[in-house]
Q: What sequence folds into this?
């Protein structure tokens, strides 16, 4: 049963993390990266005290005794440990995409798979990968085996993403970088990201973008939308978690003009309001497709407000509607 195995993996991760945290005087998330690496490597490169070494050896043996562990069990257990660490952390940017949203985005990526099938091993990229939860959740659901690319400016989150990918045995290239400031990765099949929201501090770098602000700092989420479209191959898809107010801000007119020039808006799906403590920070899933010769624009974009993910009947109705809309798309 998934629940019991998931719980066992989480407890092994958590107990080992707490031991390492106290021995090495680390923050929980840094200690979690160490513990994840121990489980992946099957040993530790650090010199621990005898009592810590014994405890970690016992936990490692317990992990090795688990049989038929799935990628999703590993991802969810690791996610629970990361969430525990994030609650204790003070960094505002340490936040995780809700699991229901990650799974729903995986469903959407599969729906467009038939429109994007010229690559046997599609390349999926997250330019703000965080701890790798969203990227691996979607890769776990994809009908064909994919290769991942992730970029992250925060060193702790990047290390967690590295351990997360290794434990799940995913093929992922990870880069320690600010995706706004760094060179392009070209011809990516699918871009997906829970975009950071706010202002980008480096005006000289923002100056290189069409979506730079006329005055003052530029919106980082606008710059990343432009960069993501540049990363994408012609006809490639983008699945971006964006603020509900994306097309209502001061710079919205320029953003809309840019998107209309470079891409096709397929869908704007507003996530349930109940998912957010403050409705003003609500998010939507924006689905774009980079323009290419021979691609038809849908007669009408799919615009919808998603029901609560706990309302199974309403959600099933909505998914049926979404499925029909995608199935009727002309290529």
A:
């Amino acid at each position: 049963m998934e629940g019991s195995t998931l719980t066992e993996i989480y407890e092994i991760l958590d107990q080992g993390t707490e031991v390492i945290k106290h021995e090495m005087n680390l923050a929980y998330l840094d200690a979690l990266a160490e513990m994840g690496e121990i489980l992946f490597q099957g040993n530790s490169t650090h010199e621990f005290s005898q009592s810590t070494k014994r405890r970690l050896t016992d936990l490692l043996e317990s992990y090795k005794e688990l049989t038929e562990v799935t990628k999703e069990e590993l991802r969810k257990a690791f996610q629970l440990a990361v969430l525990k660490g994030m609650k204790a952390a003070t960094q505002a940017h340490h936040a995780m995409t809700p699991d229901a949203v990650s799974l729903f985005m995986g469903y959407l990526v599969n729906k467009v798979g038939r429109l994007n099938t010229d690559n046997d091993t599609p390349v999926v990229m997250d330019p703000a990968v965080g701890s790798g939860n969203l990227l691996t959740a979607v890769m776990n659901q994809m009908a064909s085996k994919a290769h991942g690319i992730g970029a992250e400016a925060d060193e702790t989150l990047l290390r967690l993403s590295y351990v997360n990918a290794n434990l799940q045995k995913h093929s992922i290239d990870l880069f320690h970088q600010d995706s706004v400031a760094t060179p392009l990765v070209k011809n990516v099949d699918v871009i997906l990201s829970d975009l950071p929201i706010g202002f980008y501090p480096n005006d000289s770098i923002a100056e290189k973008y069409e979506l730079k602000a006329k005055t003052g700092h530029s919106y980082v989420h606008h710059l990343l939308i432009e960069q993501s479209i540049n990363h994408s191959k012609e006809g490639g898809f983008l699945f971006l978690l964006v603020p509900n107010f994306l097309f209502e801000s001061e710079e919205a007119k320029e953003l809309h003009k840019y998107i209309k020039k470079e891409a096709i808006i397929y869908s704007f799906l507003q996530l349930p309001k109940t998912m957010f403590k403050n409705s003003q920070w609500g998010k939507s899933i924006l689905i774009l497709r980079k323009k290419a010769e021979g691609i038809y624009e849908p007669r009408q974009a799919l615009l919808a407000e998603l029901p609560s993910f706990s309302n199974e009947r309403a959600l099933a109705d909505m998914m049926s509607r979404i499925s029909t809309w995608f199935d009727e798309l002309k290529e």
Summary: The CA atoms of residues 20 and 31 lie 6 Å apart.
